[in-house]
Amino acid sequence: MIHDKSLGEETVNFLTRMVKGDIEKGVYHRPVATRFPPEPNGYLHIGSAYAIHINHSIASQFHGTFNLRFDDTNPLKEDVKYVQAIQEDSAWLGYTPEVYYGSDYSEQIAEAAKKLIRKGKAYVCDLTPEGMTEYRGTLTEAGKNSPFRERSVEENVSLFEQMKAGVFAVSAKVLRAKIDMASPNMNLRDPVLYRILHAEHYRTGSAWCIYPMYDFAHPIQDSIEGITHSLCSAEFKDHRPLYEWVVTELEIKEPPKQREFGRLNISGFVTSKRYLRELVEGGFVDGWDDPRLPTLKGLRRRGVTPEGIRKFLGELGVFRSNSMVDSAMLDHYIRQDLKERCHNVMAVIKPLKVIITNVPEDWSEMLIVPNHEGDASKGVREVPFSRELFIEREDFMEEPTPGFHRLSPGKEVRLKGAYFIKCEHIVKDESTGEIQEIHCTYDPETKSGSGFNARKVKSTLHWVSARHGITAELHLYDKLLKESAELSESGNVWEDLINPESLIKVEAAVLEPLMAEATAHNTYQFIRHGYFCVDSKYSTEHKLVFNRIVSLKDSWNWPANHSK
């Protein structure tokens, strides 16, 4: 039994109302049971997490069980590496369900197929794939019965056993359900139940050469595991009549009930498994863990926490139909989670040197600054302050425009946690005219935390000691796709769709010296620049690389923009 309100808070939606109604009517004489059935042919993404969250939350709310079952019935696409990755991602996300494998039910599913054959509800068909397409009909025209539809039960049993024994070649024969070739639902026009595949399976090896189709295996697997509510995404709604046909014809008592919810789509993200594969295999992104992808591997490498994702998923509720969510909402919950846990540090992205002229060349001092601006319990740290500093190049303007209150000639600003400085002189490159240094004086009477200062300044700048700071590479991420991008089923020219500013690399940012000890397990708020973490893929002992998890700016107008 599971009941964890931190992962599945008690909420009311059309699915929970249905489950509650079934409980009140006594439909099932067993606990509520749900499952998440991924195919081990790819990696989990944010849409997968949404499906996991819904199934787990409902099981949790009704004190039931939740299974992770691998739908491993296609050896041509499956790999144990995906099995391991899916389990790792699920555990990282905070869900540790019982794990099952559809391939473990191979005998039971084959026996179910034989039962349908003996009932006259399934037959072996010799039509080629092209012939089946021709006989299937169209959305406006009924299909035609296969010329092999009226084979005797005995012949079908014998042929199916021969299929199972490996007598026939791939595509030579299939087992089909005998339903209705005139049905307006194309999924009921004698769908294929089993096909021949002479391929090595990652779990069962060469023990099988016939494999069930998902629509046939799924309801049987659900029944074996005692699933009560088979909750899946909306594209399976047209498949529900076949699910119900299977459990009815197999005479399953208290059969599981399939119901659908809308898929989660997020603006600027690609959540189609096919499109993700095109991006990865085409080299348009940096692998399945590219931080611009919505894969859980990518989100984890980017530095997003599982708590932030779960809070986001919990606030979405349950969609009845496929829905597009503004990516700003996801950023909002990531930001809300990080701002409470991250220490603040200073980092200069585009350095401009400042020289304090009224101190000796070797002068430096250790200053005490808070680790978190709004939480004194997070303590303080020492930061070196020296004669030569770096500030952001954008924080200085030789000829300030109206409203510019940062550093400019003759003007005074405060350095965060330090002193007031005043610009006295500018040094430029003689050939380009570019500003190279700013010479300033500092006022030792204006030390932060020392009490009241008579003078007031309009701006406080962050900074890093040039002598003590460390150099790092920063990766600044934005939406992968352009705002105008429209994906096509017939093929996408990704070069035209990808946002050219989805990844900006800052080669030589300067950070506080304490960041030399940063690890991939920590996240930080770089003052004014956003939340960052160490890139676990490219950081080495000789080179630090940080990923920006999310910016500081929250464009999601909460709660005004929120609507379940």
TrEMBL record:
Enzyme Commission no: 6.1.1.18
BP GO annotations: glutaminyl-tRNA aminoacylation
Segments forming domain tRNA synthetases class I (E and Q) anti-codon binding: 460-535
Keyword Protein biosynthesis on entry: yes
Keywords recorded for this protein, A-Z: Aminoacyl-tRNA synthetase, ATP-binding, Cytoplasm, Ligase, Nucleotide-binding, Protein biosynthesis
Annotated Glutamyl/glutaminyl-tRNA synthetase class Ib catalytic domain residues: 32-338
MF term (GO), any: ATP binding
Top-level EC class: ligase
Domain Glutamyl/glutaminyl-tRNA synthetase class Ib anti-codon binding: 345-443
GO cellular component: cytosol
InterPro entries referenced in this protein's UniProt entry, alphabetically: Gln-tRNA-synth, Gln/Glu-tRNA_Ligase, Glu/Gln-tRNA-synth, Glu/Gln-tRNA-synth_Ib_cat-dom, Glu/Gln-tRNA-synth_Ib_codon-bd, Rbsml_bL25/Gln-tRNA_synth_N, Ribosomal_bL25/Gln-tRNA_synth, Rossmann-like_a/b/a_fold
Family classification: Belongs to the class-I aminoacyl-tRNA synthetase family.
UniProt name for this protein: Glutamine--tRNA ligase
Protein source organism: Paenibacillus glucanolyticus
